[in-house]
Specification:
The protein is α/β, with parallel strands linked by helices. The chain is 43% helix and 19% strand. The chain has one domain: Response regulator (Rossmann fold). The protein is built from five helices and five strands. Strands 2-1-3-4-5 form a five-stranded parallel β-sheet. Helix 3 links the parallel strand 3 and strand 4. Helix 2 packs parallel to helix 3. The longest helix is centred in the N-terminal third of the chain and has 13 residues.
Length: 122
């Protein structure tokens, strides 16, 4: 499994998180997930760098903006690409969070897969 591209899904809605996990696993990715930014940071610390992070913006405990700010300050994880996956508004949100990509909810799986593959090199 070490050669399998890893994706970190950060999403508070359990159904959405599980749907993304299943889809990505079927597409051959290793997937780990977190229900908020704080747990995502803990996952990065414990399990290392994924090839991309899929990040919801509106979450309890630590939202997407707070996560991204903390991630960008961490020297080992600052360069991990982040793709915002949200229904929270226009793409202008992406600029404020300095994301590398943006996918709207409801998720178009072809767009999501194309975006992830761009960052994971597959």
């Amino acid at each position: 499994m070490s050669g399998t591209p890893q994706v970190l899904v950060v999403e508070d809605d359990r159904d959405t998180r599980e749907m993304l996990e299943r889809f990505l696993e079927l597409e051959g990715f290793g997937v780990r997930s977190a229900p908020n930014g704080a747990e995502a940071l803990a996952s990065l610390q414990a399990e290392g760098r994924p090839c991309v992070i899929l990040l919801d913006l509106m979450m309890p405990v630590m939202n997407g903006w707070q996560f991204r700010e903390a991630q960008r300050r961490h020297p080992d994880f600052a360069s991990v690409p982040v793709v915002v996956v949200t229904a929270a508004g226009p793409r202008g949100e992406m600029a404020s969070i300095a994301a590398d990509g943006w996918v709207a909810k409801p998720v178009d799986f072809d767009v999501l897969l194309h975006t992830i593959r761009r960052f994971c090199g597959c």
